[in-house]
Specification:
The structure is a homodimer of 194-residue chains. Chain A is mainly α and 194 residues long. Chain A folds into 2 domains: 9-144, Tetracycline Repressor, domain 2 (Orthogonal Bundle); 145-194, no CATH class. Chain A contains 9 helices and no strands. The relative contact order of chain A is 0.08. The interface between A and B is large, with 83 and 83 residues.
């Protein structure tokens, strides 16, 4: 085998992986919440299903790589310098791709298994994302008046935060679920119907 | 076959199911986040694995029934009359049973599939829980001073709520992810480091 170089087979493999991931994101963008089949992703990339899996060690590795590629694409619109409120723009993007939302949920449910392809990705993702978002709050926090919120909003958020924190806690048991939820309940209570 | 009666085979089946679910919760309470095997739950109930599945149409039906049984047990300590802050006590219970937290996450990832055993359970659970929690906020909200929060707390909550809201939204696409997250970001910003 020839030495890998920028123009050699290694670079070709990298370029092909990138192309597959771009096609996969495009396929998810056109799909409903059940997501596209591996076969249809492969077809878009001009490959058979077996040919597709030649570029990724296993099916789950491909699925995690698709989520990582979405993060890279989202980061273009949400990085350390964009304001906090732009996280909502990322959510709006999610709302247009329910298949990726469901894939995210499935992989996050698999992530607590240390042998699963999603374990490292989710552990790093939560750690890095918490840092980036905390830095934004440090810059922008304080001074603004609290918005008034309705009880239904408060309920959705408290339940959502409880579920989402448990997913983070499975990967980082040092988080204090009880303290966080108790403080959030107090914060929401203070803002309800003012 | 004899007519089912309180003392007949039907009642016996119900009692046996209840016993299996109690044993399952006890097995989860003693397990780490990977959870107990079906075999060990069966053994606690004096059954083989095949015998265990005689009482539930399928494995997933048993797993969803275990989550429903946990909710019933939690409801004893968290119902419509207990104050909001007691949701934190439910979280504290979760923190002692990581296997159930992981089972919850796995089943909630499967719930968007309308044919999955978890679909009806999670759809009802979110709807009912949102109502109960909103009623609590309606009673208790307003008037209290907002607690000061640190940027790391704000980051954990915003990320958790984003993930948790997406799980609710997959089951109820009428939820407005973007509006909810934007409002939560503003509420957290107003409370950071005051």
């Amino acid at each position: 085998m020839s030495e890998p170089s920028r123009r050699g087979p290694y670079a070709k493999g990298v370029a092909r992986r990138q192309q597959i991931l771009r096609e996969a994101l495009a396929a998810y963008a056109e799909s409903d919440s059940s997501g596209p089949s591996l076969r249809s992703i492969a077809a878009r990339a001009g490959l058979s299903e077996r040919g597709l899996l030649h570029y990724f060690p296993a099916r789950d590795e491909l699925l995690v790589a698709i989520l990582a590629e979405r993060d890279t694409a989202d980061r273009a619109s949400f990085d350390a310098d964009t304001p906090l409120d732009d996280l909502a723009a990322v959510a709006a993007h999610s709302a247009r791709t329910p298949g990726l939302v469901r894939l995210f949920l499935e992989m996050s449910a698999a992530a607590p298994d240390p042998d699963h392809a999603a374990h490292g990705f989710f552990t790093r993702r939560y750690r890095d994302l918490r840092e980036v978002v905390a830095r934004k709050f440090r810059r922008s926090g304080g001074g603004n008046p609290a918005p008034a919120v309705d009880p239904e909003f408060a309920a959705r958020i408290l339940i959502a935060a409880s579920d989402g924190l448990q997913a983070q806690w499975l990967l980082d048991p040092s988080l204090d679920l009880t303290a966080d939820l108790s403080r959030l309940a107090k914060l929401l209570e203070s803002a309800v119907s003012r």
